[in-house]
Amino acid sequence: MRQYRQYLATGVVAFCIAIIFASCAATKNVPYFKDIPDSTKEKMIVDAPYTDPVIIPDDILSVTIVTIDPNTSAPVNQAAAVPVASSNMGTPELVPGLLVDKNGDITLPIIGAVKVAGLTSYQAKALIKSRASKYYKDPDVQLRFANFKITVLGEVERPASYVVPNEKINIFDALGMAGDMTIYAQKENVLLMRDTLNDKKLIRLNLNNKNIVGSPYFYIQANDVIYVEPNKYKIASTDAYRNRYFAIAAAVLSVMIVAISKLL
């Protein structure tokens, strides 16, 4: 009987130690590209072809028409601004630019409505230049996205929406803007949500696989949302306080059992 109690006490102590270590354990940050061997040999990976983002309704475009005489194009370049939701949920911010309406058009003074939805910024620039040539001699058109916004959520250091000045940005650039993933991130199961002209795409990406560099979703587009899911250790850490108190109670109980077994 005494030996049974000792075995029981030993088992309880071992269980308590395991609980304590489990509750306090933290995983190491899993590196990107785990399938690339750790060696000094050069590794060649085919990069994904970059395609210009396509304009969709609700985009905001900054359009400037440049002519020899700036005064002649001044009416077209009158400052316009579109109110957008602010990051602090306060007064809407004004973003300089032209809103692409539900029909896919922007409206320029003098030139009128121009359908740009479904076009890249380069194609829209060429179309506006063609329309502006009816009113101006040798006009030059400058066009860019004024609200090239991406959103990074989940297990990153600074989840938020970010306005990107450069249209050519890849998924690692986006994660870098958000302070990179935390140690609790699932790098092999990152969700990308993308709006298109007709639907919304949901894509799972494995950032531990070197082939991500060649994926058609390697480059980010305007209004993309990146969601980094937590791993099992983060889920377990939500019960850290409960586990800690449970471990302390179990440790006290084990000490009592050991003391009683020695008395009997």
Any overview of this molecule?
It is a single chain. Helix content is 29%, strand content 26%. With 264 residues, it is an alpha+beta fold. It has three domains: 2-27 and 236-263; 60-145, wza like domain (wza like fold, 2-Layer Sandwich); 149-230, Outer membrane lipoprotein wza fold like (Roll), CATH 3.10.560. The strands form five sheets. The chain has a five-stranded mixed β-sheet. It has a three-stranded antiparallel β-sheet with strand order 4-1-7, with helices on one face. Helix 1 (2-24) runs antiparallel to helix 6 (240-263). The longest helix has 24 residues, at 240-263. The radius of gyration is 29 Å and the shape is elongated. The termini are close together.
Return the CATH architecture of the largest domain: 2-Layer Sandwich
Number of helices: 6
Number of strands: 14
Radius of gyration, whole Å: 29 Å
The N- and C-terminal alpha carbons lie at a distance of 9 Å
Q: In the CATH hierarchy, what is the superfamily of the largest domain?
A: wza like domain
Quote the beta fraction.
Answer: 25-35%
Name the helicity range.
25-40%
User: What is the CATH fold-level name of the largest domain?
Assistant: wza like fold
The largest pleated sheet is described as: 5 strands, mixed
Order of helices and strands: HEHEEEEEHEEEEHEEEEHH
- Content-based structural category: alpha+beta
Q: Which spans of ≥5 residues are poorly predicted at pLDDT below 50?
A: 21-29
Number of domains: 3
Main sheet: which strands, in order across? 9-8-14-11-12
Shape: elongated
CATH class of the largest domain: Alpha Beta
